[in-house]
Amino acid sequence: MHQAVDAVCRDGQIVPLEAVDFRENERLLIVRLSNAPANDSDSVQAKDWSTFAGVLKESPNWADDPAQIQQAMRHEWD
Length: 78
What we know:
little secondary structure
């Protein structure tokens, strides 16, 4: 099982933001997140959440009983 560890770089050292017990010679995979400026043309601009409110209320996919929808998804392969 994989565990994600949030960390920052301080003075060239990787410092976890929470206490983590590492084993000697344990393999780690480090994924470096981009620090691109928010106005970068390649980045996705954050949108106000209220623009999404109510968008799906008229969708026919939500017209049925929620319990029946869940049950149908659980038994999809039966």
